[in-house]
Specification:
- The protein is of the alpha/beta class.
- The protein folds into 2 domains: about 5-245, Rossmann fold, CATH 3.40.50; about 255-340, Alpha-Beta Plaits.
- The chain contains 12 helices and 14 strands.
- A hairpin with a 2-residue loop joins strand 12 and strand 13.
- Helix 3 (about 105-115) runs parallel beside helix 5 and helix 11 (about 280-290) packs antiparallel against helix 12.
- The relative contact order is 0.12.
- Keywords: Amino-acid transport, ATP-binding, Cell membrane, Membrane, Nucleotide-binding, Translocase, Transport.
- Part of the ABC transporter FtsEX involved in cellular division. Has ATPase activity.
């Protein structure tokens, strides 16, 4: 049984003005998230990602459909039971949402006080979390005295305070610079691996999914248009919106316009070789070209690493006798996908 299960979930809002059309934010979404997953939900602004995460922790109610957390239907429970389940769901935000009037210690302690924990338990747990996020020396500081990355570390510690089984991260790195983003993503990975916490990551940043997530769902206009293992979706996206996202971090097969530009800059036959983990390596392809006495120059593309799995596309300008090129390409096609530019 999935830890988080959405079945035919929809969320609509009333028209913004009289006579207008109702707004469909979530449109018949069905999704299962297993215990231990780091599940990325990606999509452009307005795709419905943030609405979906608010439905998961019942900050908003569905218009139709069911959401089950560990088998319990959040859409059918009274508010007092929902609040109890919500204690097991931590949340971190883009803008940190810290209490500016409270110290770092008291920000982290807040969920524990709400849950009725005693002072000794609170002190022990906060000290443990400050050590985990690397902010032991900041306990008495206030949020305004912290950098953005430090604020998000406090946000993560606060979200972990009540020992949740689920952590929801809504654009948690969007306000951070690249170096700090890498540090926060490494910390979230530790949250998952060391504590076994299931993480749902809402983001429009493909690099976040590439680095952190194990599975991914692509949202567009309130619907999930593609889902699956991160490597599979990145290396072979099927839907147009998925392909647009993947292109932000992966240079794929060049478009016709890009081919025209390449032909203006490079002589030779323009051919793209596509590699996936388990295929022959680039060195084998290059060796085959050299064996056939075919010259080559890399003119487009790149190879990507998704958590230890490699894929990518390399476009080469080939030179040499046409018969030699055909011989080499025939041999290479038996191992990997070869795309003739413009065809």
């Amino acid at each position: 049984m999935a830890l988080i299960s959405l079945t035919n979930v929809s969320k609509t809002y009333p028209p913004a003005e009289r006579g207008g059309e109702r707004v469909i934010a979530i449109d018949d979404v069905t999704l299962d998230i297993e215990k231990g997953d780091v599940y990325g939900i990606i999509g452009y602004s307005g795709a419905g990602k943030s609405t979906l995460v608010r439905l998961i922790n019942a900050l908003e109610r569905t218009t139709s459909g069911a959401i089950r957390i560990d088998g319990r239907d959040m859409t059918a429970l009274p508010e007092r039971d929902v609040r109890r389940i919500r204690l097991g769901i931590g949340m971190i935000f883009q803008q940190f949402n810290l209490f500016n009037s409270k110290t770092v210690f008291n920000n982290i302690a807040y969920p524990l006080r709400v849950a009725g924990a005693d002072k000794k338990t609170i002190a022990s747990r906060v000290d443990e979390l400050l050590s985990f996020v690397g902010l032991t020396d900041k306990a008495r500081n206030y949020p305004e005295q912290l950098s953005g990355g430090q604020k998000q570390r406090v946000g993560i510690a606060r979200a972990l305070a009540a020992s949740p089984s689920i952590l929801l991260a809504d654009e948690a790195t969007s306000a951070l610079d690249p170096e700090t983003t890498s540090e926060v993503l490494a910390l979230l990975k530790r949250v998952n691996t060391e504590f076994g916490i299931t993480i749902v990551v809402i983001t429009h940043e493909m690099d976040v999914i590439q680095t952190l997530a194990t599975k991914v769902a692509v949202m567009d206009a309130g619907r999930i248009v593609e889902r699956g293992d991160v490597f599979e979706v990145f290396s072979n996206p099927q839907q147009a919106s998925s392909k647009r996202f993947v292109s932000t971090v992966v240079q794929g097969v060049p478009s016709r316009d890009e081919v025209l530009t390449l032909r203006q800059r490079h002589r030779g036959r323009i051919v793209t070789f596509s590699f996936r983990d388990g295929d022959v390596s680039q060195s084998v392809v290059f060796a085959e070209l050299a064996r056939a006495n075919v010259g080559f120059e890399i003119v487009y593309g790149g190879i990507n690493d998704i958590q230890g799995q490699v894929f990518g596309h390399l476009t080469l300008a080939l030179s040499g006798a046409a018969t030699n090129q055909e011989e080499a390409l025939t041999n290479i096609r038996s191992h990997i996908t070869v795309t003739e530019a413009g065809l």
